[in-house]
Structures are given as structure tokens and as C-alpha cells.
Amino acid sequence: KPAVGTAFRPGKVIVAGVTISSPDKVLWPAVGDRPAITKADLARYYEAAAERILPHVAHRPTSIIRAPDGITGDTFFQRHAMAGSNPRLKLIDVQARTPYVAAIDVGGLVAIGQSGGLELHPWGCAADQPEVPDQITFDLDPDEGLGFGDVIAAAKVVKVKLEALGLTPFVKTTGGKGLHVVVPIKADSRSRISWDQNKAFAKAVSEAIRVEAPDRFTTTLAKKARGGKIFIDYLRNGRMATAVAPWSPRARPGAGIAYPLSWGQVKAGLDPSAFNLWTYRTLLKKPDPWRDFRASAVSLKPALKKMGL
Ligand code: ATP
Ligand code: MN
Ligand code: MN
């Protein structure tokens, strides 16, 4: 069994027991005085952040954005396991032609990095229960021209609504332009709901928020409906839909990471670009505001009832 940890061999880098090929390949170019981020750097990031990432990714079907030549090259969204998938990734049969993949440990995460996997996009369910959602994501997408302050205000509206329904919402940056408000729900045999119910609930809550402030919110996917509004994207909540994982890097300039926040941080002055692959070591020293994420899950059934569903 290979030792966990980083070791150097002539011409080779081994991270968490995974050999990293082309370790010096640049994935994110240098920006000003911030150095380029290489494949070895990404592998070390996955190793360092594994404890924070794995609770949200391990044993979940996960799509991966791969950018084997870095963010300036071609990127593609990989839904299925590919021939030669690393044996450290678990294969999941969801009655599809090709199995899906999931990391189960730090070696799996590093193996994703080794394959040029820059972004982790898990489904809203566990691999052993692919028909049972266990979380709901409200993806807040600001129209161009809106400031981050508008996104912050929107997230608080969603929070209040969800709390009134007896749920415990969590919030994270996306490493991009918006915020995600995420609700853990129970998936045991007494609490389990269907994907249709999950999506209907997310839609109903989003519609209720739009009806209360139609000048601020839209629930229509079409870009032209967005004029100066926040699009509450509830479409993350169907079967096989994904949302970026907490702590996932983004294959975008700025090397942002999707960063779990406490609600207290969601206020004026919050700068989502501060959470990135250059600053993560400091971020990992802070307590985890999502530590109680899974423990906060409740059955969605009473909330469904309150929404008339
Ligand atoms: P931002 O804050 O910039 O909107 P985001 O991660 O929320 O970042 P979106 O475009 O709103 O980006 O997408 C929300 C989620 O939908 C993503 O996290 C991803 O999991 C999924 N998604 C987006 N685009 C695709 C795609 N082309 N194929 C599959 N899933 C996608
Ligand atoms: Mn979004
Ligand atoms: Mn979206």
C-alpha cells in the first residue's frame, strides 16, 4: 500500500500514492505576482483539502470538468467513466450503458487531478441510492451588470424562505459569479422523496420568491428574461443534475474555488475571488462552517406539505 503524502522521485512527483505525470504542466497561467499553478500543485491541493472535500464528494456520482492542457486549452465535461479510468475511482452502475465514477478517498481525488480533472460536480445523491435525492441546490445566477451585493441579498431571501419551511440552508461561493444555497435532506426509508418531488419543491420555492419580488428575481432559464435580475436556477435538482462541489477548483481565470461560507460572512465586502488556489492554505486553517452539513438534514416531507406539494 503506497504511503499517503508527497514524495519526490527523479522526474516524478507522487502525491497520496498517485504518480503525477507531467507535474510541471501549467493548468492555470501565472497572474501578476501569482505563480502559474501546475498539475503537481493541483494534486497537492486535492491532497491538502481532501478532508474538507470528501464529505461532499465521496461515494457520490461525480461529473468532472477535465482540462488536460490547462484552462487555456480544450475543456470537457466528463459524465461517465472512460476507458483506463484510474482504479482508485469507484465505478457506479446507474442502469446506464457506461458507469459513472466517484472518488472514495484522497487517492481518488488526486487521481482525478492526475487526469487533468479541474472541477468536481457531484449529483445530489449518494451512489448507493441514485434514485433518492439528499440535498437541494438553489443556484443564484446574477444577470450581467448586477453586483455581488445583489447576489448576497438574494441568498438571504432564499435563506429566510427555507428556514421558514423548517430547513437548514448552507451557502457557498461557486468560484464564479454567483452563490449556491444548499439544503441537506434526509434520505432514509421513512424520509425518502423522488427526484420529481425534489425538483418540484425547488421550483415551487423559487416561484414563490419570484412572485414576492418579480423585479429582482426570475425563474426563467432564457437569458432575455433576466434583464437586471437574479435567475434562481432550480434545475440543479433533477435526476443526474449536478452542482459544483464545495472546495472544487474552477477551470476559469483566477483559479477560484467553490468555498463554503458561514451565513455571517454573507455581507457587504465579501469578495468571492479571495478564495482560490493561491490562498487555500490559509483557508484550510479556518474552522469548517459546513461541518454540520449532513447532521442538519431533516425530512423534506413537512416542507413539501407546507408548499402544497
Ligand atoms: P456561477 O456562479 O458562475 O454561475 P456555477 O457553478 O453556478 O457558477 P452555472 O453555469 O450556474 O455555474 O451552473 C450550475 C451548475 O450546473 C454547475 O455547477 C454544473 O454542475 C452544472 N452545469 C453547468 N453547465 C453544465 C454543462 N454544460 N453540462 C453539465 N452540467 C453543467
Ligand atoms: Mn450558477
Ligand atoms: Mn446556473
Order of helices and strands: EEEEEHEEEEHEEHEEHEEEHH
* Proportion in β-strands: 15-25%
The percentage helix is 10-25%
Rounded Rg = 19 Å
Count of discrete structural domains = 2
- CATH-defined superfamily of the largest domain: DNA primase, PRIM domain
What is the multimeric organization of the chains shown? single chain
The average pLDDT value, as a whole number, equals 94
Structural class: alpha+beta
The description of the largest β-sheet is: 6 strands, mixed
CATH topology group of the largest domain: DNA primase, PRIM domain
DSSP summary, beta strand count? 16
- CATH architecture term of the largest domain: Alpha-Beta Complex
Distance separating the two termini: 51 Å
Cα shape: globular
Bound molecules: adenosine-5'-triphosphate, manganese (II) ion
Strands side by side in the biggest sheet: 14-15-11-13-12-16
Runs in which pLDDT lies below 50 for 5 or more consecutive residues are none
CATH top level label of the largest domain: Alpha Beta
- The number of helical segments is 6
Protein name: DNA ligase (ATP)
Keywords: ATP-binding, DNA damage, DNA recombination, DNA repair, DNA-binding, DNA-directed DNA polymerase, Exonuclease, Hydrolase, Ligase, Manganese, Metal-binding, Multifunctional enzyme, Nuclease, Nucleotide-binding, Nucleotidyltransferase, Transferase
Organism: Brevundimonas variabilis
GO molecular function, one term: metal ion binding
